[in-house]
Amino acid sequence: MADILSQSEIDALLSALSTGEMNAEELKDEEKKSKVRVYDFKRALRFSKDQIRSLTRIHENYARLLTSFFSAQLRTYVQISVASVDQLPYEEFIRSIPSATVLNIIEAPPLEGHLIIEVNPNIAYAMLDRLLGGSGESMNKIENLTEIETDLMKGLFEGSLPALKEAWTSVEHDINPFLVELETNPQFLQLVSPNETVIVISLSAMIGKSSGMINLCLPHVVLEPIIPKLSMHYWMNEKKNDATTDEYRAMKKSVEHSYVNVTAKLGQSQITVNELLHLSIGDVIKLDQHLEQPIVIEVGSLPKFTAQAGKREKRIAVQIIKKLTEEDDVDE
């Protein structure tokens, strides 16, 4: 879409054209020239915008679940939100993260391959400091974690994996993630080829007074079996029938006690406005309904049954004769 010019820019453009600084014909020729966009084949875009939006929705839910989990575990202020979702080569992702950081290597059967959850040192050490009874201050000493500190971090991140499992249920895919290894040097991680396209979900995290990023790296080869489920069309169709049996029963029970208007339609007639104005007590309006014709029963405003008129215990009543279907013409 072309840029919208402000009034001052329009005035400047008209002034330049009137003074001869710009030539209208040259502008037309420039507009006719083919637009060329540089395409980098090393950064092949293998995910559509629709699939990127679905991944964003999934991980926005994941960020909310992580916020609740870490808040409870660390007993401090925690705020996590999705900052960006990008697709880029694996090599570029490895180069973009710190040389000493916390890398959680995850497997998520039935998906094949490995996922990576990279936690920035600022955030990782703030978490560790809280676990050890500190105030949550951050300092970068990730490259020389002790065995006890490593085990504490493993326990914390393993506890956060159910949040990832729950977030992915929104696309009707049941994964069972578990922590394979905790690594601190990204150079030792050659999980896929350098040019393999990966999705990087960057989460902005605030732990107490410390802030940093949590990055999820999802290789295309891992997500390939479920890529069709990431389209909006599939996601919306699946969502139409996602109510559980218990939810259906509860809904049915609630609806059963709702009140609806039932009307026995004895007939109808048309009169002119003049006739209406001159109606008086004792006048008779002729209906278009014959005595031998069944009465139409409307539920709400929809015709549902036919019936015949009568009495029951000195009260006017109708007896149901037939249930109407879509093929029935009630005007006959």
TrEMBL record:
Belongs to the FliM family. It is a peripheral membrane protein. Residues 255-324 form the Flagellar motor switch protein FliN-like C-terminal domain. This is Flagellar motor switch protein FliM. The keyword Lipid metabolism does not apply. Coiled coil: none annotated. It is found in: Bacterial flagellum basal body; Cell membrane. It comes from Sporolactobacillus shoreicorticis. The keyword Membrane applies. Keywords: Bacterial flagellum, Cell membrane, Cell projection, Chemotaxis, Cilium, Flagellar rotation, Flagellum, Membrane. It comes from the Bacteria. Transmembrane segments: none annotated. Its main location: other.
